[in-house]
Amino acid sequence: MATAPPSTYSAVTLNINGEKHTLTVDHRTTLLDALRERLDMTGTKKGCDQGQCGACTVLLDKRRAVACLQLAVAAEGREITTIEGVAEGDQLHAVQQAFLDLDGYQCGYCTPGQICSAVAVIEEHAAGWPSAVTDDVRPEAGPPPLTPDEIRERMSGNLCRCGAYVSIVQAVARAAEADAAARADRAEQGTEHEGAAA
Amino acid sequence: MKEFGYQRALDVSGALALLDADPDARFLGGGTNLVDLMKTGVERPGRLVDVRELPLDRIEPTEDGGLRIGATVTNSDLAAHPDVRRRYPALTQAVLAGASGQLRNMATVGGNLLQRTRCGYFADVTKPCNKRDPGSGCPAIEGEHHNHAILGASDHCVATHPSDLGVALTAFGAVVTYETADGPGELPLTDFYLPVGDTPHLETALPPGALITGVVLPPAPVAANSRYRKVRERASYAFAIGSIAAALDVRDGVVHEVRLAFGAVASRPWRAHAAEAALTGGPADAEAFAAAADAELAAARPLPHNGYKVTLMRNLVVAVLSELAEEAAR
């Protein structure tokens, strides 16, 4: 029996920056095009549209991904965070502030992708993930220090045609330091709290 | 891009049934290769069956001391797993050497094994290609082939398999498990990819309609002393022009056990059996390593513009085995 031709579009609900958006998409629509062309969220940029430049980097379930190779229909049910959702209200994310303070860009086109990627890099490093330039990947070796070499490797999926890499690396390093300090503070408070409870 | 249907499978039997019902359907994992190829028209499925959310996302120890890696485990989760990092460090290094952080978060283990070659003629639908359009010819043989195969190729196709992950899995004797409507099956990775011959469009020995469910790594104590090294034309985020996964166990200066696999030199990750045989039981020194590399590379048939790969692979074998021997001696 011949199969009936399948429907080539679907109604999907996308959870973006904490808000639900319901729309009907042609299955060919990438998450990148859905964001930009259908939902008017143009912060996420289209560079190569082939997964090679990182300009369209967003977070899916808190992990970085390229929106150009992610079909919108397949993103239903996932927690999507774009550059529009990185700040907390008027309070910029530490990565955004560091990019501003250290001029981590020139033309700015790759910047939303760089920032989303850096937010995830800091999380990945804090979780103890090694990278391709980590000497010893065994868990016993502990997390590698986030050196400029480590940052360059971890950010290598984000190209900057202006070549603002020097200040991008500095900005990621500064944001990572701020993040590590905040984590240490929280850990200390947590310990004190536990001590008080005991 | 051609229009297509989309369905999400929630269990393995449902995925198999959806694929079986439509000869024009394909499984979708992370989509990092398939979606890209659909944009360029190389792949033209009429329906996608999304298998990313199947419950195949775990890494578990096997009873005999190996590891079972589910097909939908992402490259990132595989690389970060403590047991992989501790017992098969070259596997973590191989995964981390591939693609970018973004792509590793999306890509799955099953999809990685089924990714297509990055040959420029394969990717360009305006060009002939025996892999994409059987019988149309192979322009790479007389054309741009500086990153094409030196081992196991044929007059019909000289494309390479681009996986890094697959090279380490091949060195460690991994077995691919799959499910079909008629029941489960398994294939050692060394038999998973078919010889090129005159059928370069037939890439794997998977039965039609089969779904990869995972990869089983047999116990391999030698793998604890292992390394993956990748050579590429820029420092990061590029496909290999040559890579090697190696593991070495030296006892009293003699090679007790060695594992070697090459990447970016053949249509499949290349297990270097001849080199392993030449080394086992012999001295663990640079001369022996070079002789073993020569034994493997005697079968190389380089093209006019990729002869450098023979030298490159020889040097990689000597360098990486020397480092592993030195570390083992400490």
From TrEMBL, chain A:
Oxidoreductase found in the keyword field: yes
InterPro entries recorded: 2Fe-2S-bd (IPR002888), 2Fe-2S-bd_dom_sf (IPR036884), 2Fe-2S_ferredoxin-like_sf (IPR036010), 2Fe-2S_ferredoxin-type (IPR001041), 2Fe2S_fd_BS (IPR006058), Aldehyde_Oxdr_Iron-Sulfur (IPR052914), Beta-grasp_dom_sf (IPR012675)
Keyword match Nucleotidyltransferase: no
A matching Pfam family: Fer2_2
Boundaries of every 2Fe-2S ferredoxin-type domain copy: 10-86
Domain of life, source organism: Bacteria
Keywords, sorted A to Z: Iron, Metal-binding, Oxidoreductase
PANTHER family (UniProt xref): OXIDOREDUCTASE WITH IRON-SULFUR SUBUNIT, OXIDOREDUCTASE, IRON-SULPHUR BINDING SUBUNIT-RELATED-RELATED
UniProt protein name: 2Fe-2S iron-sulfur cluster-binding protein
UniProtKB/TrEMBL annotation, chain B:
Signal peptide region: none
Keywords for this protein: Oxidoreductase
Nucleotidyltransferase as UniProt keyword: no
SMART domains: CO_deh_flav_C (SM01092)
Stretches assigned to the FAD-binding PCMH-type domain: 1-222
PROSITE patterns for the chain: FAD_PCMH
InterPro entries reported in the protein's UniProt record: CO_DH_flav_C (IPR005107), CO_DH_flav_C_dom_sf (IPR036683), Diverse_Substr_Oxidored (IPR051312), FAD-bd_PCMH (IPR016166), FAD-bd_PCMH-like_sf (IPR036318), FAD-bd_PCMH_sub1 (IPR016167), FAD-bd_PCMH_sub2 (IPR016169), Mopterin_DH_FAD-bd (IPR002346)
Keyword Oxidoreductase recorded: yes
Entry-linked Pfam families: CO_deh_flav_C (PF03450), FAD_binding_5 (PF00941)
Gene3D superfamilies in UniProt: 3.30.465.10, CO dehydrogenase flavoprotein, C-terminal domain (3.30.390.50), Uridine Diphospho-n-acetylenolpyruvylglucosamine Reductase, domain 2 (3.30.43.10)
Name of the protein described by the UniProt record: Xanthine dehydrogenase family protein subunit M
Species name: Streptomyces tauricus
